[in-house]
Amino acid sequence: MKANIELRQLRYFVTVAQELNFTRAAEQLKIAQPPLSRQIQALEKALELQLFQRTNRRVTLTTAGEVFLGECQQILSQVDRSIQVAQRAAKGETGQLTIGFEGSFHNETVLSIIQSFRSQFPDVDLVLQEMSSGKQMDALLFRHIDVGFVDPIFSREEISIIQLPTEPLVVVLAASHLLAGQDSIDISQLEKASWITGQRDEGCGLLIRFLEACRQAGFTPNIRQETNDVQMRLGFVAAGLGITVLPISALISERSDIVYRELDISVPQVELAIAWQSNELSPVLQSFLGFVRSMF
Asked: Are 5 and 71 in contact (CB under 8 A)?
């Protein structure tokens, strides 16, 4: 049997069942008593069973009514929960956000944004994917990621960005390197050095900026090793395989076998931005972008 019943009839029934008095139930529901009685009668007719025993002095639940009350309470509780879940999803408080980031940028700003957003929106599932800035741009266009932390040098017309604070590049050397004793280093002093960089075919924003700085200094760097893994790069430096440049925030571990030194002011600072595809923003992405804008 498929009974034709309405959600409001279930709410009416639960209120009457809890009060066991039609007058008090009508007052609580803020409706008149006659329409309430008619709705309960219509519900009983649709169910083809009696929910209440009525006398002039009292109202009681039938056995079927007691069983139906428990089921209705569960149904209404689930409906209310579903409404709340849907409302939170519409506000961007739940869901999933896929975030791209470039491995060369262990940026304190990036970590602070992710940590703070996670704290304010604990029910948003954050999926982090490491990839170069160039690949992030492709991933954004094909909607493989929702938002990315990228070097804005790869900006495209279809992609919107929020510029984040810049930070300086530093050169990382083995503690035994001849230049390790200097407080700062002119990049032209590193012309004959062996370099460890990000992978050239991956669209690494840091590598492009480094190559441009070398070009302006009048030389082409001798790149001997390539990896986008910062910890691996530091290990290569410590092993004497070469030197590297990194954003200063990437030096997150204290090591006695490497040193980092400031580069001369002619070397451009590292730029970083949040990027997303301009149209069709999901509620979760809107929440994330609004949160970032509030931080800056």
From this structure: no
* DSSP structure class, residue 201: G
Identify whether the C-beta of residue 256 lies closer than 8 Å to the C-beta of residue 175. yes
* Of the candidates 159, 233, 164, the residue with the CA atom closest to the CA atom of residue 199: 233
Which DSSP letter does residue 153 get?
G
Listed as own residue / partner, the contacts of 62-71 with beta carbons closer than 8 Å and 24 or more positions apart are: 65/17, 68/13, 69/13, 69/14, 69/17
pLDDT digits (tens, 9 = 90+) for 226-283: 988 888 889 999 999 999 998 887 776 678 899 989 887 666 778 889 999 988 789 9
Helix, strand, coil shares, percent, the chain, to 5: 45, 20, 35
Distance of CA 272 to the CA centre of its chain: 17
CA separation for the pair 274, 4 (Å, rounded) = 52
Residue 171: alpha-carbon gap to chain centroid: 32
Residue-wise pLDDT tens digits, 137-184: 999 999 999 999 998 888 888 899 999 888 888 899 999 999 999 988
Q: Which residues pair with 98 in a beta bridge?
A: 127
Structural contact between residues 104 and 198, judged by C-beta atoms closer than 8 angstroms: yes
> What single-letter amino acid sits at 250?
A
Which pair of tokens denotes residue 218? 């009048």
H runs (alpha helix) in 174-229: 205-217
Sign of the C-alpha dihedral computed for residues 176, 179, 181 and 183 taken in this order: negative
Closest CA to 191 of 163, 233, 222, 226: 222
Specify whether the backbone of 280 is left (phi greater than 0), alpha (psi in -120 to 50) or beta.
left
Residue 276: closest CA among 112, 117, 100: 100
Locate tokens 């410590």: which residue? 238
Helix or strand (DSSP H, E) at 51: none
